[in-house]
Amino acid sequence: MLAALAGLGGWAPVVCVILLAAFVGGKWVQRWRFYRSLRMARISVNELKRLIDVGAKPVVFDVRTATARERDPQRIPGAVAFDLAQVDVVVAQLPDECEVILYCNCPSEASAARIARRLMDRGVRSVRPLAGGLQAWIDAGFEADIG
Fold first, then answer.
1. What are the φ and ψ backbone dihedral angles of 105, each rounded to 5 degrees?
2. Where are the alpha helices (DSSP H) in 1-147?
3. Which distant-in-sequence residues (6+ apart) come within 8 Å of 33 by Cβ?
4. 3-state secondary structure of 82
5. pLDDT by residue (tens digit) across 27-82?
């Protein structure tokens, strides 16, 4: 590779800069696509609480890893642990026209949004990540079960 660069003479630095710019640009596009795919409507903790209080019975999934659930066993009342390996089984068992809420404990609800996108790709119509995740629920002073 050094021999090829040496053969370019004075153009070697220009070629290196172009290659570096292409690499950085590619990474930027990759990151932009990732964030665009995560952009979707979120539900606030107050909206979720209101749904639960009026008896709407949303299906709430805790999408944190098993390790995260062991570390912090708190969960939103009625929430079910979500196993990504069983996504097709979960989708098949969902009631028609139900509201699906996902929560995690990661920044920007990234895991919940990623799984929401998978559920939407499999035909689940009404699925939203919980804005702020479990911590927002607890910070709002709402009840949390120990799961």
1. -130, 30
2. 2-8, 12-38, 45-53, 66-71, 87-93, 110-121, 133-139
3. none
4. coil
5. 989 877 766 665 668 899 999 999 999 999 999 999 999 999 999 999 999 999 99
Q: Helix or strand or coil: residue 42?
A: coil
Residue 118 tokens, joined: 């998978």
Cβ-count burial of 109 within 10 angstroms (0-12 exposed, 13-18 middle, 19+ buried)?
buried
Instruction: Check if the beta carbon of residue 100 is closer than 8 Å to that of residue 126.
Output: yes
pLDDT, tens digit, 9 for 90 and up, residues 72-127: 999 999 999 998 888 888 889 888 888 999 999 887 788 898 899 889 888 888 89
pTM over 0.70: yes
The length of the chain is 147
User: Position of tokens 């050094």?
Assistant: 2
* Residue at 15: amino acid letter: V
